[in-house]
Write the structure tokens for this entry.
Amino acid sequence: MKQSVSQKELLGKAAERYAGSISLAEDYLRSRGIPLEVARVARLGVVEHPEVGHELFRGRLSIPYITKSGVVDLRFRSLNAAVEPKYMGMTGAETKMYNVLDVDKAGDSICVCEGELDTLTISSMVGWACVGVPGANSWKKHYTRLLADFERVFVFADGDQAGTDFARSLARELPVTIIQMPDGEDVNSAFVKHGANYIKVMFQH
């Protein structure tokens, strides 16, 4: 369902407000290897003063889904996932692809990750064009069409069964190269432990 201009304006206003409080998540972001300046470019934020209807998301990391037309969705990640649901989304929101602006920046290849912070890690910290979906079951047919013109699509599979299944399901839709993370690791945890070069070496293998 197409969003109205007013809906996008409200999302954009909320994202801008929350981005002003991103320094509250500095310690959390540091633990994920993401500098504040990278978070600011991605317009990540913290829900310090919730917009009307966003009270449930207070204290969470705000992750805007940005397209050429502006902010089309917001998802909210817990900064303390041990005691509350890790991710929450807007009521009734359709699943979107994250970081789609990288499609236009990419050359003849593009990367795909499961999870926004993994996507941001590849795009901003490793330096390869990357898009993502919020979960292994979030892939839609039109995403396949969006990536069909790339010569190579590299899928970073989390080191668990869901990640393996996600990569295999994409392999049935697109000519992909699967880069399997070690058991129990995802892109971001591998990056935090070993750095960007570790991921680049995996990529070359």
Q: What stands out?
A: The chain has a mean pLDDT of 92. Residues 5-19 form the longest helix (15 residues).
